Amino acid sequence: MEKLRELREGLWLLDTDQFGVPHFGGVYILRSGDEAALVETGTSLAAPAVLKALDALGIARQAVRKIFLTHIHLDHGGGAGVLVRELPEAVVVVHERGAKHLVDPAKLLASVKEAVGERFPLYGTAEPVPRGRIEPVGDEKMFRVGDVRIWAVPTPGHAPHHLCFFLPETGELFTGDAAGLYLQGKLYPTTPPPGFHLERALESLKRLARLQPKRLFYTHFGPGEVPERLLHKYMGFLEWWVQKIEAARNSETSEEEALAKLLSDPEVTAYAYSGDRDMGELAMNIRGVLVYLSRRGK
């Protein structure tokens, strides 16, 4: 498969062409001995490609024991309900605050639809995951896939139900959205409503830095070099990003006017990635900060 890239022995990255954009969204496939795992599922629209990739790698469907979700947003975990039907031994590892939304995704779907508006069809859907196929995580917890240890680390900030996954033997860290988007060597914000929280995001980044990872694996997208530099750079970026949006909010009479001002500011529009042609994703990330600021002011 041309969309499947081997990162090292036993670890692959599948480009799911998320939102119709190459090199934007990925699913990681890990194999150790007779067992395998997924890190992320992508949207429900990506499920056929994930299954095809497993077949191409010669990984039997019953060999997949874990599906590690960094969080339940549809671009990361929307395919979980579809995939557990096809992967009979797989258990979904997810933060305990997100587990109920996998069992009954109605509120999750409504929240995504409100946040992304007309872009909602690009996010697919979410089928329920049976409660017995979910392993919720509340605090740090170690898992095994074959001989590989995988450490689940709570990292709120992007969302309260966010986890990162760290492999202590190799120093590999799957960042989800905790460390931003990393597209073609450039960091981009990922601060959507309703759960973005600046102080928690910064503390999570410090926690990740203390792990001293050797490699970062971004869901959006792929390996990031010089982990310490990237983690600290995103900390500084988040502080600038929130200050920029707060200044616009304070200078305008309404949040909609502030949003319009920001979407005409070249410093801000520089962070509309190439696939975000209508700046809908950028606007969503601005709205996430506006929600955070409103909540902080109460």
List keywords for this structure.
single chain; 298 residues; alpha/beta; Metallo-beta-lactamase, Chain A; seven-stranded mixed β-sheet; globular
Shape: globular
- Span between termini: 51 Å
Uncertain residue segments: none
Give the name of the CATH superfamily. Answer: Ribonuclease Z/Hydroxyacylglutathione hydrolase-like
Q: Please, how many domains?
A: 1
* Strand proportion: 15-25%
Q: Structural class per helix/strand content?
A: alpha/beta
Overall pLDDT confidence:
96
Biggest pleated-sheet summary: 7 strands, mixed
Helix content: 25-40%
User: Which CATH first-tier class would you pick?
Assistant: Alpha Beta
Number of strands: 15
- The name of the CATH architecture is 4-Layer Sandwich
Main β-sheet, spatial strand arrangement: 1-2-3-4-5-6-7
Give the CATH topology. Answer: Metallo-beta-lactamase, Chain A
What's the number of helices? 10
Q: Output the helix-strand order.
A: EEEEHEHHEHHEEEEEEEHEEHHHH
Brief overview, please?
The protein is α/β, with parallel strands linked by helices and 298 residues long.
